[in-house]
């Protein structure tokens, strides 16, 4: 296994924590002269939900609405990345857009899609955030991060949530 880090996979959830996760990925990219592949997964409707909606509004319209949602999410992600880049560039001039290899917005099960992307890209590192919600907020990691970390076979940087009360 190579110890050089040239490719970083960074799944983000578009929550407030995404900024910190992306910042960590960019810092690692700068330190190792690596490229970052950013991934956002839109959770799919399960068949029990999607079929009645598609039947009610029509399959074609449902597919169109899902594509619109992907486009909106991609635009939001690109806007967040631009804001983050502007914020970083105020602090340091060493971060550049060339660090971003790809921005991927796909739908499906987040855990499966992150693992599929890792299989396809063969990254040297995964930078993933944690953001437990509700009654699980006091656990160490969120559900997606925990399930990904159990199955992925590359070095991982786990970025904890920012405590809003501190």
Detail the topology: elements first, then pairings:
Elements: E1 7-11, H1 18-32, E2 35-43, H2 47-57, H3 59-91, E3 100-108, H4 110-121, E4 125-129, H5 143-151, E5 156-159
Parallel strand pairs: 1-2, 1-4, 2-3, 4-5
* Arithmetic mean of pLDDT: 82
Structural domain count: 1
What is the CATH superfamily? HUPs
What order do the SSEs take from the amino end to the carboxyl end, as H and E? Answer: EHEHHEHEHE
Strand content: 15-25%
Largest sheet: 5 strands, parallel
Cross-sheet strand order for the largest sheet: 3-2-1-4-5
- Spans where pLDDT lies below 50 across 5 or more residues: 135-140
The percentage helix is: 40-55%
Kindly describe this structure:
It is a single chain. The chain is built from five helices and five strands, in the order βαβααβαβαβ. With 166 residues, it is of the alpha/beta class. It has a single domain (7-159), classed as Rossmann fold (3-Layer(aba) Sandwich), CATH 3.40.50. Strands 3-2-1-4-5 form a five-stranded parallel beta sheet, sandwiched between helices. Helix 2 (47-57) crosses helix 3 and helix 4 packs parallel to helix 5 (143-151). The radius of gyration is 17 Å and the shape is globular. Mean pLDDT is 82; it is low at 135-140.
């Amino acid at each position: 296994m190579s110890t050089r880090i040239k490719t970083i996979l960074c799944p983000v959830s578009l929550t407030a924590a995404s900024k910190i996760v992306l910042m960590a990925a960019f810092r690692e990219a700068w330190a190792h002269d690596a490229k970052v592949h950013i991934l956002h997964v839109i959770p799919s409707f399960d068949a029990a939900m999607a079929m009645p909606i598609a039947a009610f509004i029509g399959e074609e319209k449902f597919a169109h609405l899902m594509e619109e949602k992907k486009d909106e999410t991609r635009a939001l992600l690109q806007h967040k990345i631009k804001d983050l880049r502007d914020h970083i560039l105020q602090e340091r001039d060493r971060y550049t857009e060339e660090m971003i290899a790809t921005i991927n917005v796909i739908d499906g099960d987040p855990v499966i899609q992150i693992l599929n992307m890792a299989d396809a890209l063969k990254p040297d590192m995964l930078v993933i955030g944690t953001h437990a919600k509700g009654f699980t907020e006091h656990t160490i990691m969120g559900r997606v991060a925990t399930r990904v970390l159990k199955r992925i076979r590359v070095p991982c940087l786990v970025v904890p949530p920012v405590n809003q009360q501190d």
